Every structure is written in structure tokens, then in C-alpha cells.
Amino acid sequence: MNPSAADTWDEFMEGVWRQNPTFVMILGMCPTLAVTVSVVNALSMGISTMLVLIASCGLVSMMRNITPKEVRIAVYIVIIATFVTVVDYAIQAISLALYDALGAFIQLIVVNCIILGRAEAHAAKNPPLPAMINAAGMGIGFTIGLLALGVVREILGAGTLFGVALFGAGFQPWVIMVLPPGGFFVLGAWLLFFSWLERRKLRRQQAKLVEATQNA
After folding, report:
1. Interatomic CA distance for residues 179 and 153, integer angstroms
2. What confidence score (pLDDT) does residue 52 get?
3. Is residue 95 part of a domain?
4. Among 39, 49, 69, 81, which is least packed by CB within 10 angstroms?
5. What is the rounded distance in angstroms from the CA atom of residue 50 to the CA atom of residue 53?
6. Position 68 in a domain
7. How far is it, in rounded angstroms, from Cα 42 to Cα 63?
8. Domain count, the chain
């Protein structure tokens, strides 16, 4: 892998894993907790946010040298709102049922701190291609986070996956999973799991360091 390809991969993986918006930076919690009662809703919100992220960061990057610093935040918000409006009308045209299920959270993508944060911290300082690749990674990372919650909540809360029944008639759904507290419980469980993985990784690194020191 040549250096440019390695840099591109690094830009992409930053949002997918190392700086995952949901499980590392804990950003965008409103849609994460509100729309993840089903996998379809979670996937739709994730894809919508990712499209807005990529398009917004690409345009912000293209305009980075001509945007006055004094009004940059206002410019970013106008750009983001434009693409959110496009996505909003697209979802209405594709499925009114999905649009009703997602509710106001499609419009609230405008104030999602993931998008504004990427525009300010990365897109405004980098060329369009790296900015869009980084945005794609962040969008995929956010989508993975939503799906992680949506899968658990739909299976336990409705006994289905993508609307397909998984259990027999005797299955008793965990009603709490489709209520707001269920979102907090599942998010907490995932955060605990990833925290455990990180601690285990650190322990292994420390063990290897001790072993290398003893063998030296």
C-alpha cells in the first residue's frame, strides 16, 4: 500500500472505528436513541446523515479558501440545511411511512454536531477528496452505531428483524426496548462492551511490553 493509499485508508477508518461518533465521541445521541426502535429506521437515518455529511463536507472544503472566517459557521449551516432539505424531500418521495416514522429527526440533521463538527474540524482545513472520504467514514461509523442499537431493540422489543418474525407465537416482547429507556439501556450495554474491548487491548499491549522488557 503506497503512502497516499495508506493516508486515504486512515482518513476513512478514523470515523468508522477509532473516532466512531456513537461509541467513542458519543455524538448525535438524539437520533441514536429516538429512531433506533427498528433496523429500517436506523439504517434510513444513518444513510441520510451520511449523504448529508459527504455532500456538505465536500462543498465546505471547496469553499474553504473563499469563505470569510467571521461567517464560516453560518455558511456551514446554510450548506448543511440545503442538503438536509434535499434528503428530506427525497425520503418523502420514496416512502411517506418511513418519513412519518423518522419524524422531525430528518430536519434535525441540520443541527447534528457530527456534521457541523466535521465541517469545522476537518473539511474546512483539507482538500475535497480527503474531506469527503473522512465524512464517509464518519457516516458509516454513525450508521453502524445506529444499526447496533436498532438490531438489539427490534429483536428484543418486537421479536422481528427487518420486520420478519424471528420467534414463535409464544415470544413475549420486551416492551421497554421500544420505549426511550430501552435506548439508554442498549446504548449503555454497547458502551460497556467497547470499553471492555479497549481495556483488554491495553492489557495485551502492556503484557507484550513487559515480555519484551524481560527478554531484552
Report:
1. 9
2. 96
3. yes
4. 69
5. 5
6. yes
7. 31
8. 1
Q: With a cut of 60, say whether residue 2 has pLDDT above it.
A: no
| CB-based burial, 70-98: b 16+ in 10 Å, e otherwise | eebeebbbebbbebbeebbeebeeeeeee
Its pTM stands at 0.90
Confirm if 186 and 73 have CB atoms less than 8 A apart: no
The answer for residues whose C-beta is within 8 angstroms of residue 99's C-beta and 6 or more apart is 91, 92, 106
Residue 199 lies in a domain: yes
Predicted pLDDT at 216: 67
Cα(61)–Cα(133) distance, integer angstroms: 12
169, part of any domain: no
Compute CA distances 216 → 23, 163, 202, whole Å.
38, 58, 21
Structural domain span for residue 207: 3-159+176-215
pLDDT range class, residue 4, cuts 50, 70, 90: low
DSSP3 helix / strand / coil % (the chain, rounded to 5): 80, 0, 20
pLDDT surpassing 70 at residue 165: yes
